[in-house]
């Protein structure tokens, strides 16, 4: 059994091997730039961790682990163009450092590179891995589209929101656990159980993200606190407030969100005050807790030695207690 | 042996089956719009035609044929965003009819749908088909990047240009012929021969496109004649003129291309006059002829009954004599 650190080291080695293309430089330099910035590498780590639950040899899971990491980075690249985001992980985004056309085309190249890496998987697992990858990739696009659609809608419900984050975030985590299990030789039954654990963990992960954006501290979270409020994002927090707030509180919420008089700082304070009156923080934590315990319970029920579940337990703990 | 018309009918049936996704509408409506506009369907037709050369049953080649058609349409969708083109095949482009974000994301979805369709190929052919698809898709991106790079360069050579159109156009035609042959059970040797025939036909096809853009008639070509001249595109015609023109002719060419005094019509006339003085039309036809005969010769040498080569001969003829 390799430790999380050992797995991350193996992932880094593999990623450095992908950056071999050079010409045309305007196509591949942005790809290399994107892949070499150090994200948390959560998706390939979970893929390898799931493989290790069934087989100590993680090598067969490396292609699909890398494929999901490249795909995830591709989505960030195109999302940044669509959202006009200028910074990502403390560095300028590709469309800011180069331009939008470069970001579109090098993103396209990354998606192909993800499939190219995936295609190096063992032939016996390839059809299963490909089906899951295709399904998941399309769902992530659907999630992004719903997210964009929600920007101009005022009637988004909490179930719609939860479905959106399931598509945009959870299915990718779930697909990583599923695919790792497949490469470890797990039965269909076990692979599907891992998938469901991934859905719950992914939902908890995204809800925690929403929570930190409003109730984290900037130094911990690494990005500006209150960004979601300023962008009037329909997060779980805001939708919950609209659901349970009094007419008066909803009026004040709408006033603050649409106000052009309030300073940014005041707008954030104003909305946070209403959230606090409504115990939104606790409602969100309860929602996270629900997904977290469901995942832990399913994990406990798997007939696999506990030592093999260590990284997944660690991840479940990490995402609940993380502050960045 | 099915006729080209019968194959095209089969392709249309299959394409209509792909348009089954509905939600989110803002993601899938542009996909359906793009796929249902009737292009020439050359790529899937060639795929099925290559399959038929080796086996009468074309069904195993349908997934990969469709995959290349969807991929081709995806590249047009993203290219139109990058080039800011407003019209395509007589209709508004997706980014014009919707917006750039919709075009980016629905293009991404189309690329995944292409892979999804490809994945339905027989498991025994899948690794070969996937490898070719990945390699080709990445090369098409490289070709598009070189094309964009050339816009701001004044030292593009003819070999560089030929390499760019090989990547942007020919490899896709070649991959279709290769993949069709694979699905027909052709040997590696034969599949590779088909690939090389595709490269030559693809080069001839693109050079003919360059020629028609300047020397076609608008009614035949379906788009405005002289567009390449107005956009100062480094086509084979222009690069050849720069290569063989006298210092005086090159000066006049540069004057016309950069002129803000000349009307569009005068600019086109001016450049065409120089092209005619330099016999650029004949040089281009000679270049097309070279690729065309190479393809025909290789096709003739294949140890396959002539009746089975009919559609490929027809295509070779069509692309040389086409006027649109």
Structural description of this entry:
2 copies of one chain form a homodimer. Chain A is mainly α and 324 residues long. Chain A has one domain (4-121, 130-321): Orthogonal Bundle (Farnesyl Diphosphate Synthase), CATH 1.10.600.10. Helix content of chain A is 74%, strand content 1%. Chain A has helices at residues 4-18, 25-36, 42-52, 62-83, 94-97, 100-118, 126-151, 158-183, 188-215, 218-221, 227-230, 236-244, 247-258, 264-277, 280-301, 310-321, and strands at 87-88, 91-92. In chain A, strands 1-2 form a two-stranded antiparallel ribbon. In chain A, strand 1 (87-88) and strand 2 form a beta hairpin. Chains A and B meet through helix 4, helix 6 and helix 7 of A and helix 4, helix 6 and helix 7 of B.
């Amino acid at each position: 059994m390799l430790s999380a650190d050992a797995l991350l080291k193996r992932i880094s080695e593999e990623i450095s091997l992908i950056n071999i293309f050079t010409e045309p430089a305007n196509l591949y330099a942005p790809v290399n730039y994107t892949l070499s910035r150090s994200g948390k590498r959560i998706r390939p780590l979970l893929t390898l961790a799931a493989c290790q639950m069934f087989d100590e040899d993680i090598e067969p899971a490396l292609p699909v682990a890398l494929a999901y990491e490249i795909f995830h980075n591709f989505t960030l690249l195109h999302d940044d163009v669509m959202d006009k985001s200028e910074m990502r992980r403390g560095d300028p985004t590709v469309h800011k450092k180069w331009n939008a056309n470069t970001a579109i085309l090098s993103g396209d190249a990354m998606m192909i590179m993800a499939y190219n890496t995936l295609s190096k998987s063992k032939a016996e697992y390839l059809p299963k891995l490909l089906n899951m990858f295709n399904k998941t990739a399309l769902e992530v696009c659907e999630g992004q589209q719903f997210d964009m659609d929600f920007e101009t809608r005022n009637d988004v419900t909490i179930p719609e929101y939860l479905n959106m984050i399931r598509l945009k975030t959870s299915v990718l985590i779930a697909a990583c656990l599923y695919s790792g299990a497949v490469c470890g030789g797990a039965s269909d039954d076990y692979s599907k159980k891992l998938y469901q654990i991934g859905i719950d963990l992914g939902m908890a992960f995204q809800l925690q993200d929403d929570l930190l954006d409003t109730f984290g501290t900037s130094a911990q979270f690494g990005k500006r606190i209150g960004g979601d409020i300023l962008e009037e994002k329909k997060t779980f927090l805001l939708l919950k407030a609209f659901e349970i707030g009094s007419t008066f509180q909803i009026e004040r919420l709408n006033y603050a969100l649409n106000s052009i008089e309030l300073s940014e700082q005041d707008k954030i304070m104003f909305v946070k005050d209403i959230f606090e009156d409504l115990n939104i923080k606790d409602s969100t934590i309860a929602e996270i807790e629900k997904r977290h315990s469901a995942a832990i319970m399913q994990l406990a029920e798997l007939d696999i030695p506990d030592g093999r579940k260590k990284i997944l337990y660690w991840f479940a703990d990490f995402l609940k207690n993380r502050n960045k």
